[in-house]
Structure formats: C-alpha cells, structure tokens
Amino acid sequence: MKSEAKTVIIGGGIIGLSVAYNLAKLGESDVVVLEKGYLGNGSTFRCGTGIRQQFGDEVNIRMMKRSVELWSGLSEELGHNVEFKQGGYLFLLYDEEELESFKKNVRLQNRFGVPSRIITPGEAREIVPPLNTDGVIGAAWNHTDGKANPFKVVFAYADAAKRLGVEIYEYTEAKGIKVENGKIKAVVTNRGEIKTGRVINAANAWAPKINEMAGVPVDIPIHPYKHQGVKTEPIKPGQIEPMVVSFKHGGVYLTQEANQGGVIGGYGLKYGPTYDITPTHEFLRGVSYRFSQIIPALKYINVIRIWGGYYAETPDGNATIGRINEIDEFYIAAGFSGHGFMLAPVVGEAMAELVVNGKTDKPLDFYDPYRFERGELRGKAIQMG
Ligand SMILES: Cc1cc2nc3c(=O)[nH]c(=O)nc-3n(C[C@H](O)[C@H](O)[C@H](O)COP(=O)(O)OP(=O)(O)OC[C@H]3O[C@@H](n4cnc5c(N)ncnc54)[C@H](O)[C@@H]3O)c2cc1C
Q1: 0.85 cut: is pTM over it?
Q2: Quick check: CB of 335 below 6 Å from ligand 1?
Q3: Which residue puts its alpha carbon closest to atom 21 of ligand 1?
Q4: I need a surface site. Which of 5, 40, 237, 331 has the fewest CB within 10 A?
C-alpha cells in the first residue's frame, strides 16, 4: 500500500469508483480508493438495478438526463459490458390525484428533454403483457429509463480506473483522519497510514462516521435504513422489460433482469435507522403478495433470494454532494437513499470537475451539505421502495 497519495477516496461502492475513474479521466494522478470490505459490498451490490429520469423536480431530472447519456456510452467507455438496457419505467396510476401529479411531473420532464408521457392501461399491457391493470386509470411511461448490472458496473469502473493509474485497496478500512489547522494530513487505516491532503467521503451509510473522524463541524444528517430486495427464478425473456412501479401497492417495484431473466424488485418496507440488514420474513411475505397483485402469474414463480441493504437517507431523500468549507480539500458525496446507483455516472463527473476545476456545470447547489443546518429542505425526491 502507498504511504502517500494526492487524493484518498473512502468507499468502494459505485459512487467512490465513479469519482475515482472520473478524476483519473480528467488527468488526476495519485488517486487511491479505500474499501473496508470488497468492492460493491455496501449498498451497490444490493440495489434494484433501476435507472430513471422520471423525478418530480428539475435538478434530479437534469442530473439523471445527463446520467442516462453517460450510461448509454458506459460499456464502450469503460471497455466492459455493463448490461445497460433502456427497457423504460412504468408508473401505474390508480386515481385522479395520482394521475394529476404524474401529469405535472411529465410536463416538467418534457421541458428538460425527457420523452415521458401518460399512456392508457391498454398501452401499458402492450409494454408488459402479463400486467394486471385492474383499477389502473393511466400510467406514466418513459422508454429511455432502464437498468444495468451493478456487479458488472462496479468491476468496469474499477478496472477502467486502475488502467488510468488509480490504486484500489480492498479490506482497507479508514479508521481515522488527521487534520491540523483545517488541513488534512493523513488517513489512518487498519493497514497503516496514508499521507494525503485530500479526502472524498463516499462511504454512503457510513458517511457520518467518516465526517466524525475528520471533525466535520456541520451537521449532515444521513441515517441507514434497511430496505430489502428479492429475486425470482428466471421467467421467459422479455415479459417485464420496464421497471414497473405502483405506489398504491406499498411502493412496489419490479423488473426482469436484462440477462438472467429473474424478476428483481422490492417495496416500501423499511426498518431503522439501523446497521442490521438481516432479511425478514415480513418482507418476503409482503413482496410476494404485492408482486402477484401487479403480475398475477408471478404467484407460480419461486423466489430464489432475498437480501437486505441500506438506503442512506437524508431528511429530504436527496444526497449531500460538495465541499466542506471548514476543512481544506474535504469533499462528500453520500446519502443517496434509493437512487445512488442511477446517479453514479453524473455524480462522478460532477465531483471530479469540482475537485479538479474548482467548479462544475452540474447543479450541485441543490445537494449542498449545509442545507440541513440552514433548515432548507428540498422537495422530497420520488423514491422507490
Ligand atoms: C434494496 C435496495 C434497492 C435499491 N434500488 C436502487 C435502484 O433501483 N436504483 C438506484 O439508483 N439505487 C438503488 N438503491 C440505492 C443504491 O444501492 C445506493 O444509493 C448506491 O449503491 C450508493 O452507492 P455508494 O457508492 O454511495 O454506497 P455503497 O455502495 O454503500 O458504498 C460505500 C462503501 O463505503 C465503504 N466504507 C464504509 N466505511 C468505510 C471505511 N471506514 N473505510 C473504507 N471503506 C468504507 C463500504 O464498505 C461501502 O462499500 C437501492 C438500495 C437498496 C438497499
């Protein structure tokens, strides 16, 4: 392990790796990533794979529009197939109030170039043949939303970053951060010390612990909540191409994996704040019931796996991204709730621009880590699960 580095990124999930890759792409040398377990073991490998631009606020729409542009070229750019597939997102709507609010979202999304639209229950069935549309009065549909394979993306980012000179240390835990007179001096790990003047906190659910190590003087409320995912045995390919979402059924979401054919998803059952991510029987029962309400044929399909993972939640469901003013060269990109996987390409790009150029054209002010202290919550981000 190096004893000195210009930049130390703490966290080897998709965010830390995307930041590392983008820093190296902008020409930064001497970048190190520390991961206390194996890459992806935090939230990233436990995610529902969904990538959407259908948000209800301008900034998340714009950020995700750029992220989808990046996702579209990512396999080629990183040199590995990340299985990005634009199968769309389909929000099922059951009453006038829901319909009106999604019409408003669609108008906003269209203003920023996202080609979402409201469709009829019949059109929804054409997109998802086994769909139950009883009670559905319309659906919000965007065919450019999609999904990707978290395992492949993590590997692809890590490999591409390494090719550009980034060093990645797994099973290497940041245990302390030495700061003197507002300047970072070193990161202390279980494998020794790395002298550095710059730290990027990409530890998501553990981000508050990293802030504490550095003595970050501002209160950045990020709390770990247990959310769970499920996967079924494979079904005939092409049955459920989009991510199908119903808030009327407890926030259930499900889609068929691009390559392996299993149905993957979850619903809005959460526990916490807690660092315990043991899967629960309550979830298994609840998710099976809801899946079969949306796609009745799933009653006959076996579940092969359930798992728990973290939504690292802030009070408004939006991440905290930016610089901590009181400590020179300390940055944070954490607290991504249920949408950090999809945002990773654009967040990596924006963070690298901020670090290298001192500014970015992405609207990062929205994610300002100081907003909570000022009592300035953003509108709650649309969230699955
Ligand atoms: C059930 C479920 C479904 C989800 N579905 C979706 C979805 O469909 N779409 C979507 O966009 N998002 C989804 N998410 C959210 C998504 O998984 C996260 O927002 C995203 O993975 C966050 O990435 P990250 O790199 O910030 O965090 P993580 O992947 O958690 O990475 C942080 C890393 O930091 C490491 N770390 C922590 N402390 C230290 C330390 N002291 N030293 C060294 N390393 C440390 C951890 O081990 C971890 O690997 C879902 C999450 C769950 C749980």
Answers
A1: yes
A2: no
A3: 44
A4: 237
